[in-house]
Amino acid sequence: MQQPSTHYLSILFLSAVAWTLLCICTGAMEIAPECFPEGHRILHHAYRSIHFDSLELQEKAIQDMICDHSLPQGWYRFMIENKPAEMPTKCIEMNKCGTQAPIWLSLQSDSLPRPGERKALTACGTWQFFSGSTKDCCLFQIPISVRHCGKFLVYLLQPTQGCMGYCAEEKFQIPALHPVVAPELLGSQVYLKCTFTSPTSNWATGYTVIWSRLSTSNVKEQLHHDTTVQAFSYVEMDGINFRLGDTYTGLRLKVFCTVTVFRWDSPDHHTLPEESDGFYAGIKDSIVHHLAHVQFVSPSFVPFFVKCPESQFGIVFVPESLKIAEDGKEHILTILSTIPITCLAEDDICKITLQLSTQISDNLLGRTPNIALSTCHVDLEQRPCRENSCGKATLAVRAVNDFVENGNLISYITAKPVQPSKSLWHDYKPMDVKVTVQDLPTGYCYSFTDPHIITFDGWHYNNYMVGTFVLYKSLSRLFEVHVRQWDCASHHIAIACNCGVVALEENDIVVVDMCNRQFLETKSQVIIQNIRASSQQNVKIMKSYGGKKITILFHSGAFVRADLNDWGMSLTVRAPSSDFNRTRGLCGTFDRNSQNDFHRADGSSLPSHQNSTMEENFIEAWR
């Protein structure tokens, strides 16, 4: 028997080292015993090659013929001239592979195992009874098993029935192809292009490219087969086999290309297939969160953010999700097209317009979405494709404060192409964006009669001091409420009452004043001022009960209500959820913790509510 060469022993050594490193790196990854160097033997005789003609051996050196009838049963790996080899999977002519009846691997409708997998397959022996007769490619059948060890295959072989031999063909080794699917605009049509690395080789090579997508049963279905000598392949997005936004049970159905290489002198023998990552052809949503100095949308105003009409269009899939809170922050929604935007004619505007709408979950049909969009339509205009984007548009999303503690609410943003000019966009339904809005509390603070104060967090105390005090100051925006208290009792008891209130939000100042005359002789005055005369007024004044109840409603949703009496007024102040944990003043800190409502001007807590001195210090801090 031929002795293994030094080069062959080096390969064995490097293989052992590689497997040792693989075990260390993969940790718990299980490797079949037959994949280790000691788990299989090597069949490396050059005569086993499918290109070796056995006729000369039969005439001159019949003793050198390959006969595997005495081959011990076990796992084997093939090598030819110290190069990796595998059993051929196509019928081999008689008198090849150093024998008369060559044995090859029949796959029929099956395939070779995937990495790590083992399969039971059938080996076939070719035979022709006499010259001129039809050959039988599978006259002899031998059950074998094949294990894919990642970089090579091993075979569980058994002795043959006679002087037959297992064939081998040199594995056509090339570098990784790295196929990638990307869209491309050719003329006025959109195509998907599969590109891959073109290997340098001593042989003339070709490529087989199979285009596929996941079926509704989650199985890949082949849609197009291409044979080419170029390192790329195209398929048209025809709206039939390759459609925009294919989905099933909420999952995006992606397109794949699988590439194999073959030699022109042996077109039936291919390399192992390499598959691209899945490509989703459609519109993707990406959410970018950022803080912005914005105000809450009050239902009483027409703000910059428009509440779009509800839409029953579309199917609810498992979408990109967004979690936001009723805290006044805006979020930027970026809409990307992963395919080029086409034009119907040369003078057309090359864009797709998407109509946007908001809708509520099906089980909450009695409620309205509490999200607002900065626009109800966006244009995706044509631009060169880069970084998986061929069109881009942005809009702002934020939660609308409903001033009701009703738990978290799920809404959806839907998009629909408006009058698409291309059949590719017809009946296309982009994935919805799921928006979960976290409910935050709305705060109420009261200062009534002489005056008793109840903070946003429910703490009770009294303020008998005369003067002007900060009742409520927001840290999230320019908003303050100041109250003036005067002496409203006899000369024997020191009691104060509210006689005036001033509220400021951004550009608007509103004053309700009863401090202008003597006690019990005064009448209220309402004054509205703008810091910047050219700016729009964003405040509403509502009066009821013959002018005895005055409500000042601000753009943010905050309000100040004054209930007027002969002696002065009682006040109610509402803080929107955007001010949660962001307030200072006599109304406390609005964080659902009444124990820290007494605080200094810098926000630091005063030690105790029970100490009257601390209470006085707290009130004085906000004079």
From TrEMBL:
InterPro entries: D8C_UMOD/GP2/OIT3-like, Dev_Signal_Modulators, Ig_VWDE, VWF_type-D. Pfam families: D8C_UMOD, Ig_VWDE, VWD. Transmembrane segments: none annotated. Residues 1-28 form the signal peptide. Keywords: Disulfide bond, Signal. GO terms for molecular function: signaling receptor binding. One of its GO terms (cellular component) is extracellular region. Residues 443-623 form the VWFD domain. The keyword Signal applies. The keyword Endoplasmic reticulum does not apply. This is von Willebrand factor D and EGF domain-containing protein-like. It comes from Notechis scutatus (mainland tiger snake). The gene is LOC113415920.
